[in-house]
Amino acid sequence: MSEIVLEGRNIVRDYHVAGGLFGKAKTVRAVKGVSFTLEKGKTLAIVGESGCGKSTLGRILTLIDPQSEGELLIDGKPINIAKDRVTPEMRRKVQIIFQNPYGSLNPRQKIGEVLGEPLLLNTNKTAAERRELAMQMLVKVGLGPEHYNRYPHMFSGGQRQRIAIARALMLSPSLLVLDEPVSALDLSVQAQVLNLLADLQDEFNLTYVFISHDLSVVRYIADEVMVMYYGEVVEYGTREEVFSNPQHSYTKTLFAATPKSDVASIKARLEKKKAAA
Amino acid sequence: MTKLLEIKNLSVGFDTSSGQFMAVQGIDLSVDAREVLAIVGESGSGKSVAMLAVMGLLPKTATVTADIMTFNGHDMLTMTSKQRREIVGRDVAMIFQEPMASLNPCFTVGFQLEEVLRFHMKMDGKARRKRAIELLELVGIPTPAERLNSFPHQMSGGQCQRVMIAIAIACNPKLLIADEPTTALDVTIQKQILDLLVKLQAEHGMGLIMITHDMGVVAETADRVIVQYKGRKMEEADVLSLFESPKSPYTRALLSALPENATGDRLSTVADFMKNEAANAGVAP
Ligand SMILES: Nc1ncnc2c1ncn2[C@@H]1O[C@H](COP(=O)(O)OP(=O)(O)O)[C@@H](O)[C@H]1O
Ligand SMILES: Nc1ncnc2c1ncn2[C@@H]1O[C@H](COP(=O)(O)OP(=O)(O)O)[C@@H](O)[C@H]1O
Ligand SMILES: [Mg+2]
Ligand SMILES: [Mg+2]
User: What is the CATH number of the domain that holds A188?
Assistant: First the structure.
C-alpha cells in the first residue's frame, strides 16, 4: 500500500499589496486553488513561468507561509500554520532548498557549524555527536571531512548547493521541496547534483517536490508533473501522460518553445532555412 | 572571400593580486556575413571576455593580444580608439544578458533609441522619431509610437530585450554579438527572442555571434559552433556535425550531461567522462 505524504486541497494564497501614494491597496491571488496528492518516495515536479506561483506554493508546503484558504495535509494530518502550533516534529519532516544557496548561508559560519546548527536547535545531541553526523553528511553529498572548517565563499556554486542539500538532510526529513535547485548551475554541475538527489531519494526514501522551469530536467526527474499558469493548475498527471499527451494549450506552448537538440530537429531546421534562402 | 570578422590567436590576461590570470588563450575565430556562429561553454570559460576584447570594452587591467583581428577589412589592432568608437555600435553591435541592466532606467525607450541614431547616423529629430517607431515595430513591440514614452521599468524583461535588439540593429550593423540574450527569460519568451534574432539576421544579411551556455540554444540557432572551455577552444564544427559526431571529449561530455540524453537512471557528468576518456587513452586523469 502506498502512503500519501503530502496532500493539498484547494490551496489558495492571497497577497495584500499596499497601494502606491494614491493607489488603492489590492489583493493578488498568487495561488488559485491547488489540489494534489503525493506518495512517499515519489517526485512531483511543478513547472511554469516566472510569477505563476511556484515558490509561493513551495513556501506553503514547507510551513514557511500560511495558506489563505484550503487544506494542507502532511502525513494525513491537516495543518494550518496561521492557526495551529507547528510541532518540532512537523518542522523536521519538511525542508526546503532554494535556487541560490549562497544567499541562505551565513558567510561567517564554517560549513561544519552550518550543518551542526539544525541538530543544536532541534535535538539534544552532544557537540561530538553533532560533529560526527556533520562529517558523515559531508561525505554523503560528495564533499569531504576536509571541508568541515571552510567558509561558504570558498566553495563553487555546485558545492554550495551540495551544502544546502546536506543541511536540509541533517534532521532526516521525509519531504524536500527543491525550488529551482539546479537553475543557477552549469550543465556538468547540474548533472552531478541531479544524480546526488536521485541517490539520496533511493537511500532515504525521500519524497520530492521539484520546482523548475526546465522541461528537460523535469522529464528526467519527475514521477508526476503539475503545470501552473497564473496561479492555476492547468495540467496535472504522470510524467508519461503530461509529456506524451498534453491537454492544455499552455502546456503545448511550453513544449513547443523548449529548444530541441536532437539531430532530426537540427536537420529539419537547417533544411527549412536552406529553402527560405 | 574575406571574412566579416577574423581573429587569430586571441589571448586576454587580467592583472590580479596573485599575478596574471589568462581568461582567453589563443582563440581563432571567424564569422562570415550572413552566418550564425555560436560560442558555447560553461560559465567562466571566457566567452564574454573574448567578445568584449573585440569590442574594445575591457577594463585597463586587461591585456589583449592577437596575431590578427580584422573587421570588414579594417585592422582592429592598429586602429585609433576614435575609429573604433565609430565602428562599435554602428557596424558591430552587442546585446547582453540583462536587458534591464543595459538600458538606462532614467530615460525613455524612445530617447535611448534616438540617441544611437543621433550619434551614429546624424539624423535630424523627425527622421529619428520615424526610424525609432519603425525599429520598435520591427522587433515586435505593439503600439510602438506610444511605447517610445515608456521607461524600462514599465516593461517586462522580454520587452526590454526587444528594445535592446532594436537599439542594436538601429544602424544596420554588419555584425551582431548577442551575449546570453535569453538566459534571464522564460522559455516561451526565449523562443520569441531567438526567432526574432534569427529572422533579423537572415533578412538583414547580418553576421550573428550567439554566446550561450545552453546546448538547446545552439541547436536552435547556429550554423557553426565553437566550444570553449577554460579560455581555450575545444572544438569547432558545423552545427549538425557537432551534435551528430562530436570530436572533442569535452563536447561529448557536455552533450551526455544533457538530461534529454540520459541513458538509464544516471546522468553522465563531465568529470566522469574526462576520467573515462583518460582511462581509455591509457593516461592518468
Ligand atoms: N511577498 C509578496 N507580496 C506580494 N506579492 C507577492 C509576494 N511574493 C510573490 N508575490 C506575487 O505572487 C505571484 C507569484 O510569485 P512566485 O510564487 O514567486 O512565482 P514563481 O516562483 O512561480 O516565479 C507573483 O505575481 C508575485 O509578484
Ligand atoms: N575584469 C576582470 N578581472 C579579472 N578577471 C576577470 C575579469 N572579467 C572576467 N574575468 C575572469 O575571466 C574569466 C572568463 O570570464 P567570462 O568571459 O565572463 O566568462 P563567460 O564564459 O562566463 O562569459 C572568468 O574566470 C572571470 O572571472
Ligand atoms: Mg520562484
Ligand atoms: Mg558571459
Answer: 3.40.50.300
